[in-house]
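Worked Example 4.2. Read the sequence first, then its structure tokens.
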Amino acid sequence: MAEVKEDYQSDKVTKQKVFTFTFYPKRLKVYSNLKYSFVKYRDLYKVFETDTFFYLYLDSRHSLLLDKSGFKKGTPSEFRDFIKKKCPFKYKK
């Protein structure tokens, strides 16, 4: 948690690109600047939730940040239920 709080305040987080996420039954799509990639839920290292973000860790040091205020479809509560089902042993709050 300390590392997450420290990273959140750093320039490497606050000045990063903006991504759009689309969630499908077996994978998620990460889209930015006419480029996209897919990530299977089973390949996520860990899912961590704070009051304002969901962190989808790709490995122990790299994560995708989902701002809870940025949902265009659905709600953070609905996403929490969804991701807990997709990653039951990887979800932490």
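Now turn to a second chain, presented in exactly the same format:
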Amino acid sequence: MIVGVLKESKPEENRVALTPAGAEVLRNRGHEVLVQTGAGIGSGFADADYQAHGATMLGTPEALFRQAELLLHVKEPQPEEYAMLREGQILFTYLHLAASEPLTRAVIKSKAVAIAYETVQGHDGSLPLLTPMSEVAGRMAVQQGARYLEMTQGGRGVLLGGVPGVDPGVVMVLGGGTVGTHAAKVAAGLGARVIILDQDLERLRTLSEILPANCTPMKSTPSKIRSLLPEADVVVGSVLIPGALAPRIITRSMLGLMKKGAVMVDVAIDQGGCFETSKPTTHSSPVYEVEGVVHYCVPNMPGAVPKTSTEALTNATLPYAVRLADMGWKEAMRDDPGLAAGANVVLGKVTCPGVAEAFGLKRTAVSKLL
């Protein structure tokens, strides 16, 4: 199969979907690997590195879209790429379709086979391709929250870890999944007082066992959230419904309960955000203020640390890319129901329940297309 690796076109996105070492693995299995010129530079990989591992460089995205049967991307296609997708072409990337109707409509129109990293499932129901970037984003969320608490950045002027004789800051984490757990660990490591909320009692029991003593797991309810918001210096939103819009946990009216200069970091922004007042921002202009509360809502947070993120991502995605290239999408999905769960739109038909629900579209079970 001809595998294409695109240079990311989303602004300030420096990751790449495949390392040179990954290209070599595909080449050794008999596949042709095409890489867009300059695709790996942001992650520390020169074009010569890919060529040394058997890849062929192409100068334009148009040429790559035209030739590749399997397209590897990191972020969702951008508007200028919509028309380049073609029928039957496999697109393997983070899609987050439920957050964008124009993108969803474009993918449907293309009749491509769109497989989303974020909905591929492991045998245990986990999300193995979302996990590595969730780990990065969770750790970064506290890092950014601590930064924007500084008064020079518009925050309250609080040091999260405090110092002897001075209370530490309070970090409130919404969601006890991968993002939330890593955020809580980093915040605790800085010395903050951490409150992590989740609705699953079994998950709360697990968190109480694995997190440090300065982390308190609590059952999440609207009332509990309202009672805790006045204490919070940083709020990390990490609530996820795979493939669907994130639920709005904190409403605009709740901002009045918070301290002026507190910071909210919405890690769920690529799925629409879990704060009512969230809107996507960029790495060059990452924050804005609503009612005195600083909002950080960068959809591609791991893109700021591409050298770490690209290797972590390829470690997770490469086995699936190999399977798709070796077997084709139909046989690969028949062989692995977890990969079939990654199908969001196939040959013009919406197969992901969350995407169909978001836009009132008819859903076709992917099994009917295999």
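Notes for the reader: The chain has a mean pLDDT of 96. The first helix runs from residue 20 to 28.
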